[in-house]
Write a structure and sequence with these properties.
By secondary structure, the protein is an alpha/beta fold. The chain is built from 29 helices and 34 strands. It folds into six domains: 49 residues, N-terminal domain of TfIIb (Single Sheet); 259 residues, Rossmann fold, CATH 3.40.50; 187 residues, Dimethylsulfoxide Reductase, domain 2 (3-Layer(aba) Sandwich), CATH 3.40.228; 117 residues, Barwin-like endoglucanases (Beta Barrel); 107 residues, no CATH class; 56 residues, Arc Repressor Mutant, subunit A (Orthogonal Bundle). A hairpin with a 4-residue loop joins strand 23 and strand 24. The structure holds ligand MGD (2 copies), iron/sulfur cluster and molybdenum atom (MO). Molybdenum atom binds next to loops. Belongs to the prokaryotic molybdopterin-containing oxidoreductase family. NasA/NapA/NarB subfamily.
Length: 886
C-alpha cells in the first residue's frame, strides 16, 4: 500500500507476446503506476521501455466514450439492437456467409471465445479471421504439417539453458526486449553464442557472433543447406528418423537447392552449419522475417526439419521457437480464432470434431468448411459478397496489405461496425457504427504468451464514459440475435470455465491442448489465478513437447516436410528496382493508438523514415534527410530518408507505425501488394518492389501545438511531446496566406497571431496564442529549416520571443532525439559524454548518465554509439535520425 491507500494489482503487459507480469497501482484519479512483477516467470520483474511507459497511455486522450451510429452519439440499447438486427437481417436474406468478423490477437481469450462461438457456432459461418493471419498463420500451418498440432515445443527457460540462439527474421532486441535481455543474461553466465539471420543489420546484431545478411526470402535455401550438412556429417538422429516420415524426400529436395540463392559466401554458410551442428543446445527463434513471406510455411518447416532430423526438440535448452507477436496471439490459436480452425485445436473439416463442438455448444449451426482468410475476406467485401462486417481490436485500413484498397472495401461495405478505444483510427473513421471498448487496464480476462503460459489481465481502472468489455458487447449482440442461453455470460470467469471444460473435447480426440483442470475454478480462484503454463496443469512432469518422439499425426510420428527455395513473388524490375522491407521500431506498437500517447516513447524515432544504403543514395543523387517518394505497383508514400549501412544495396526498410492520423503519406501498407503464402494465406509484408525518388518540395515546415492537427500538405508527420505535439511538414504547392493556413491547420480561427516574415527566403514564423498561452507555432522556409526542435517541443514553457527565434535560452540545452526512454537521455548528451568522458561501453554510459540502466532496451543502440563515437572523429551514426535535425 502507498499513500493513496490503493494496493498493487498483478496483471500482464498490454503489448507483446513475451507476456510480462506487471504490478499496477491505481492512483485513485484515473491513472496508475507500473512496475515489473518480480514473481512472473516470463520477466521476473523486468520490463522494456513500452511496458514501463504504460502509465502514460491510460489517460482519456482521444478516447471514444459513447456508442456512435452514422456519425451521431447513441445509446447502448439502440446501437446493440441496430447491430443485432442488421446482422440477423443480412443472414436471413443472404445466408450466414454474407457476414464476417475481423478480430485480433490482442483480444483476451474470453473475448475471442465469445466471438468465435457466435460466428462459428450460432451464425454458422467460419468467416471470422484475425490479424494473426498477418502474423502467425505460417507458423500455425508449419507446426501442423510437422507435428500434427499447432504447439510450441519449448519454454522460455530453454533460452536460459541454450549454448546457441539463432534469431531468424526476428529483431528480438526491439520486439521482444525482455526475452532478448534474458538471452543477454545467459550469454554473460554461460557464453551463449548468438547468430542473427536477417537481410538487415538490426539492434539484435549488436551482440551477435555471426550476422548472416541473406538475400530476402532465401531462408529455405539456407536451412536446406543445413539439413544436407547435418546428413553429410552424420548428425541425423537415428531415434528421430524412426519417429518421423519424409526425411529422404526432404533431403532429396534440399540437395537440389542452390545455396548461392542466399547471397551468402560459402564460408559464412559453413561457419553457420558448423556452429549449429556442433552445438547440441541450440534454440532457433523465428518470427516475421519467416512468417510474412510467400514461402512462409515452407520457411517454418525448413527450420523445424533441422531440429527434427537432429532430435533437438523438446529438451532443455534446445528446439525451434516461434515467438508470438501480440499479447494473446497464442490464446487466439488455442481458442480457434482463425477462419480455418474450429475451437480448442479442433478441425473444421473433421465431421467428428464438428459434431462434438456442436453438441458442446448446443448450437444450431456449425460451418462445414473453412472461412475466408483475411486477404480473401476483404476481397469478398469488395466484391459485395460480404454485406455486414464487425472489426474488433484491430486497424486493417492501416495494417492489411494493399491498405488503400482494403480501406475502400470497408468504406463501401453496406454495414461496418468497429469496436475500439478511439474513433481516431484509419478504420474507425470509415465505419458506420463505433462501439467504445474498455481498454487494457479496464478489463479482466486471460492471455497466453509465447511459451503457453496463461496469465491474468486484471481491471484496475473504471472504464471511462460508457465503454464496455469486448466479451460483454459480443455476448449481448448474441443474445439480441436470439441466442439468449448460449450467450448468457455475466463475467469473464464464467466464460473461462466454459472454455476450459471444452478443452476436454480436444483430449478426447487425442489432441494435446487441455486445461480442463481449470474448468471448475470459482470466481475467487479465477481472480487469484497465478501464471499457469500448460500442460503442467495436468500434472505433466515435463513442460515441453515432442522430446519423447510422440507427435500428433494419426501415426504418432512427425513429418519432415520436403521444401524448396522460392524467391519472393514480386521481383524487382527496371520500374521498381528496390525491395522494400518493413518492420517495427523499438518504442512504438503497431498503429500507435496507445504507445503514441506516451511522450517518452514518442521521443524515440518520431518521424516515418526509409533506410537506404549509402551507395544507392549516391547513385540516386539523394542526401540525408531528403524527403523521398516511394512507389509500388499498388500505391505510394513519402518518407524521410536515412542513410544506413544496415540495409544492403538494392533494399530499403520502412517502419509500419504511421497512419492517416499521424503521417497520412507514410502508411507503409498502402505500398504492399496482397501477395500471400499459398498454404497459410499470410501476406508477404517484407518484400515489395518499389521505386525511390526525391520529393521536390517548394516549402518545408516544423510546428508545435497543444492539440493534434491535420494539415493538408504532401507530407506531414506528428508525434506526441510532453506538452502537446510536434510536426514536420513539407509541401509542393506554394501557399500565399500562411497565417490563414496556420489557423486552419491547427483549428484556431480566433487565435492571436504574432509573426515574423522574411519574404526573400520564403520564411515565416507564426505563433498562435490565446493572448497568454501559446497554442501553436509554425515555422516555414523554402529550404529545410534549422531549429532547435527538441527544445521547442517543450512548449509552452518557452517565451514567444524564444519561440519565434527558434533558439533556446542559455539555461536550457537541446539534448537531441531521445535514445534512453526511461531516463530521457538524448543522442547529443550521450555522444558528448562518450567523447568528453572517454566512455568505452554501454555500462560506462549507464554509470555516467543512467541511460540503459533500467529496462535495457536501448543498450544495443548505446553500444553502437560507443562504436561510432569513442574514436572521437567519426560522423553521426548510421542508424540515428540526427541528420534529420537539419
Ligand atoms: N516494439 C515493438 N515490439 C513489438 C511489436 C511492435 O509493434 N513494436 N509488435 C509485436 C508483434 S504483433 C509482432 S508479430 C512481433 C514481430 O517481431 P519481429 O518479427 O522481430 O519484427 P519485425 O520488425 O516485423 O521483423 C523482423 C525482421 O525480419 C527481417 N526480415 C525481412 N525479410 C526477411 C527474410 O526474408 N528473411 C529473414 N530471415 N529475415 C527477414 C526484417 O529485416 C526484420 O528485422 O513484434 C511484437 N513486438
Ligand atoms: N507491412 C507490414 N504490415 C504489417 C506487419 C508488418 O510487419 N509489415 N505486421 C503485421 C502484424 S504481425 C500485425 S500483428 C498487425 C497489427 O496490426 P493491427 O492489429 O491492425 O494494429 P494495432 O495498432 O495493434 O490495432 C489495434 C487496434 O485496437 C484498438 N484497441 C486497443 N485496445 C482495445 C481493446 O481493449 N478493445 C478493442 N475493441 N480495441 C482496442 C487500438 O486502439 C487499435 O486501433 O499488422 C500487420 N501488418
Ligand atoms: S517485453 Fe516489453 S512489451 Fe513485451 S510484454 Fe514485456 S514489457 Fe511488455
Ligand atoms: Mo504480429
Amino acid at each position: 500500500m502507498d499513500g493513496t491507500g490503493l494496493p498493487e494489482v498483478r496483471s500482464t503487459c498490454a503489448y507483446c507476446g513475451v507476456g510480462c507480469g506487471v504490478l499496477l497501482r491505481p492512483d485513485g484519479a484515473g491513472g496508475l503506476t507500473v512496475r515489473g512483477d518480480p514473481d512472473h516467470p516470463a520477466n521476473y520483474g523486468r520490463l522494456c521501455s513500452k511496458g514501463l511507459a504504460l502509465d502514460e497511455t491510460v489517460g482519456l486522450d482521444h478516447r471514444l466514450l459513447a456508442p456512435r451510429a452514422f456519425g451521431q452519439d447513441t445509446s447502448w440499447d439502440d446501437v446493440l439492437q441496430l447491430v443485432a438486427d442488421r446482422f440477423s437481417n443480412t443472414i436471413r436474406e443472404f445466408g450466414p456467409d454474407s457476414v464476417a468478423f475481423y478480430v485480433s490477437g490482442q483480444l483476451l481469450t474470453e473475448d475471442y471465445y465469445v466471438a468465435n462461438k457466435l460466428m462459428k457456432g450460432f451464425i454458422g459461418s467460419a468467416n471470422i479471421d484475425t490479424n494473426s493471419r498477418l502474423c502467425m498463420a505460417s507458423t500455425v500451418a508449419g507446426h501442423k504439417r510437422a507435428f500434427g498440432t499447432d504447439t510450441v515445443p519449448g519454454t522460455y527457460e530453454d533460452l536460459d539453458h541454450a549454448d546457441l540462439v539463432v534469431l531468424v527474421g526476428s529483431n528480438l532486441a526491439w520486439c521482444h526486449p525482455v526475452l532478448y535481455q534474458r538471452i543477454m543474461a545467459a550469454r554473460q553466465a554461460r557464453g551463449t553464442k548468438i547468430v542473427v539471420i536477417d537481410p538487415r543489420r538490426t539492434a539484435s546484431c549488436d551482440q551477435a557472433d555471426l550476422h548472416l545478411a541473406l538475400q530476402p526470402g532465401s531462408d529455405v535455401a539456407l536451412f536446406n543447406r543445413l539439413l544436407c550438412t547435418i546428413h553429410q556429417t552424420g548428425h541425423v538422429s537415428a531415434e528421430f528418423l524412426e519417429r518421423s516420415n519424409g526425411f529422404s524426400e526432404a533431403l532429396e529436395l534440399a540437395q537440389l537447392d542452390d545455396p548461392d540463392e542466399t547471397g551468402l559466401s560459402p564460408s559464412e554458410i559453413e561457419a553457420f552449419c558448423d556452429l549449429w551442428i556442433g552445438t547440441e543446445r541450440v534454440v532457433t527463434v523465428f518470427s516475421q522475417g519467416v512468417n510474412q513471406s510467400s514461402s512462409g510455411t515452407d520457411k517454418v518447416n525448413a527450420i523445424l526439419n533441422c531440429h527434427l532430423a537432429t532430435g533437438r526438440i523438446g529438451r532443455e535448452g534446445m528446439g525451434p521457437f516461434s515467438v508470438t507477436g501480440q499479447p494473446n496471439a497464442m490464446g487466439g490459436r488455442e481458442v480457434g480464432g482463425l477462419a480455418n480452425t474450429l475451437a480448442c485445436h479442433l478441425d473444421i473439416e473433421n465431421e467428428d470434431h464438428r459434431q462434438a463442438v456442436k453438441q458442446f455448444w448446443n448450437s444450431p449451426n456449425i460451418p462445414r468448411r473453412q472461412g475466408l482468410k483475411a486477404v480473401d475476406l476483404f476481397r469478398s467485401i469488395e466484391d459485395g459478397q460480404i454485406k455486414a462486417l464487425w472489426i474488433i481490436h484491430t486497424n486493417p485500413a492501416a495494417t492489411m496489405p494493399d491498405a488503400d484498397r482494403v480501406s475502400a472495401a470497408i468504406e463501401n461495405c453496406p454495414f461496418t461496425v468497429v469496436s475500439d478505444l478511439t474513433a481516431r483510427t484509419d478504420t474507425a473513421r470509415i465505419a458506420d457504427v463505433l462501439l467504445p471498448a474498455a481498454g487494457w487496464a479496464e478489463k479482466s480476462g486471460t492471455v497466453t504468451n509465447s511459451d503457453r503460459t496463461i496469465s491474468r489481465q486484471r481491471a484496475v481502472l473504471r472504464p471511462p464514459g460508457q465503454a464496455r468489455s469486448d466479451w460483454d458487447i459480443l455476448a449481448e449482440v448474441g443474445r439480441r440475435m436470439g441466442w439468449e442461453e448460449a450467450f448468457n455470460y455475466e463475467s469473464p470467469a464464467q466464460i473461462f470455465r466454459e472454455y476450459a471444460s471444452m478443452t476436454s473435447l480436444a483430449t478426447s480426440f487425442g489432441k494435446d491442448f487441455n486445461i480442463t483442470e481449470l474448468s471448475d475454478v470459482g470466481d475467487e480462484d479465477y481472480d487469484a489465478l497465478s501464471p499457469t503454463q500448460w500442460p503442467t496443469t495436468l500434472g505433466a512432469t515435463d513442460k515441453r513437447f515432442f522430446g519423447d518422439g510422440q507427435f500428433f499425426h494419426p501415426d504418432g510420428k512427425a513429418r519432415i516436410v520436403p521444401v524448396s527455395h522460392k524467391p519472393p513473388k514480386v521481383e524487382t524490375c527496371a520500374q521498381f528496382p528496390f525491395l522494400l522491407n518493413t518492420g517495427r521500431n523499438r518504442d512504438q506498437w503497431h498503429t500507435m493508438t496507445r504507445s503514441g500517447l506516451s511522450p517518452r516513447l514518442s521521443a524515440h524515432l518520431s518521424e516515418p523514415y526509409v533506410d537506404m544504403n549509402p551507395t544507392d543514395v549516391d547513385r540516386l543523387g539523394l542526401s540525408a534527410a531528403d524527403l523521398v517518394q516511394l512507389d509500388s505497383s499498388v500505391g505510394s508514400g513519402v518518407f524521410r530518408l536515412r542513410i544506413s549501412e544496415a540495409v544492403a544495396p538494392g533494399q530499403v526498410f520502412a517502419p509500419i507505425h504511421w497512419t492517416g492520423e499521424t503521417a497520412p503519406s507514410a502508411r507503409v501498407d498502402a505500398l504492399v501488394p496482397s501477395v500471400t503464402d499459398p498454404i497459410s494465406g499470410q501476406p508477404e509484408s517484407k518484400a515489395t518492389a518499389v521505386s525511390v525518388r526525391r520529393l521536390n518540395a517548394s516549402w518545408y515546415g516544423f510546428a508545435i501545438s497543444v492539440d493534434a492537427a491535420s494539415p493538408t500538405a504532401e507530407y506531414w508527420a506528428m508525434s506526441k511531446t510532453g506538452k502537446g505535439y510536434r510536426m514536420e511538414l513539407a509541401g509542393k504547392q506554394d501557399i500565399d496566406d500562411w497565417e490563414h493556413k496556420a489557423r486552419e491547420w491547427f483549428g484556431l480561427p480566433d487565435a492571436m497571431v504574432t509573426s515574423i516574415e522574411d519574404p526573400n527566403r520564403g520564411a515565416h514564423r507564426i505563433a498562435l496564442s490565446d493572448g497568454q498561452r501559446l497554442l501553436a507555432a509554425l515555422f516555414v522556409s523554402r529550404q529545410p529549416i534549422i531549429l532547435m526542435r527538441d527544445y521547442l517541443a517543450s512548449l509552452p514553457e518557452v517565451s514567444l520571443i524564444q519561440i519565434l527565434s527558434g533558439r533556446s535560452s542559455a539555461a536550457s540545452e537541446d539534448c537531441g532525439p531521445i535514445v534512453c526512454s526511461c531516463f530521457g537521455v538524448g543522442l547529443k548528451t550521450i555522444i558528448g559524454a562518450i567523447r568528453d568522458k572517454r566512455l568505452i561501453n554501454a555500462d560506462d554510459i549507464g554509470d555516467a548518465l543512467q541511460a540503459g540502466t533500467n529496462c535495457g532496451s536501448c543498450r544495443p543502440e548505446l553500444a553502437e554509439l560507443v562504436a561510432e563515437h569513442s574514436k572521437l572523429n567519426r560522423n553521426t551514426p548510421k542508424s540515428f535520425p540526427e541528420k534529420q535535425q537539419v
